[in-house]
Specification:
alpha/beta, Maf protein, five-stranded mixed sheet, 6 helices
Length: 161
């Protein structure tokens, strides 16, 4: 998958532009790949508010205000954490919609918790619409990261159309 010529990112760009919306990303395992795909499109500054790269648990808590009890109860790779990340990004930004991702890309699994390739996504709009999704990807670490970034863009697009 080539995120630099991503037609889904272009669709997201157009959907945001036509609606006069700005998006903020909260990315963990993708470390900014989704925001980068959108930023490569000329005119992205009109739709991309910004991006939080919250790779660690501490960054999720400090930058986005994800409550420690959510991570403790549900795990850092969970729908609840993804939803809290999206809510925090929306709260700490001037964006209209937030899209968040948290996942486990490996290289090894955590027995009893997450398999390599488990990824959760959340999108939340100021108007109250929300979407939480789970996907499992196969492949190597960077392949999973790219697939997760693509899926985050798709989740954001579904949340606004």
């Amino acid at each position: 998958m080539n995120l630099t010529s991503n037609s889904t990112a272009k669709k997201l760009f157009e959907a945001l532009r036509l609606r006069g919306l700005k998006i903020v990303f909260a990315e963990s395992c993708t470390a900014g790949l989704a925001a980068d795909a959108l930023a490569r499109i000329p005119g992205a500054s009109g739709v991309l508010w910004g991006s939080y790269i919250t790779y660690s648990e501490a960054a999720k808590q400090t930058m986005l205000g994800v409550p420690a009890h959510i991570i403790e109860q549900f795990g850092v790779v969970s729908g609840e954490t993804a939803q809290a990340m999206a809510a925090g990004a929306l709260e700490h930004s001037g964006a209209d919609i937030a899209a968040a991702v948290t996942g486990f890309c490996g290289p090894t699994a955590i027995p009893g918790k997450n398999a390599v390739g488990d990824v959760w996504f959340a999108a939340l709009a100021r108007q109250g619409a929300s979407l939480v999704e789970f996907r499992h990807f196969r492949g190597g670490r960077n392949g999973i990261r790219k697939a997760a970034a693509q899926a985050l863009i798709e989740t954001a697009l579904r949340a606004i159309i």
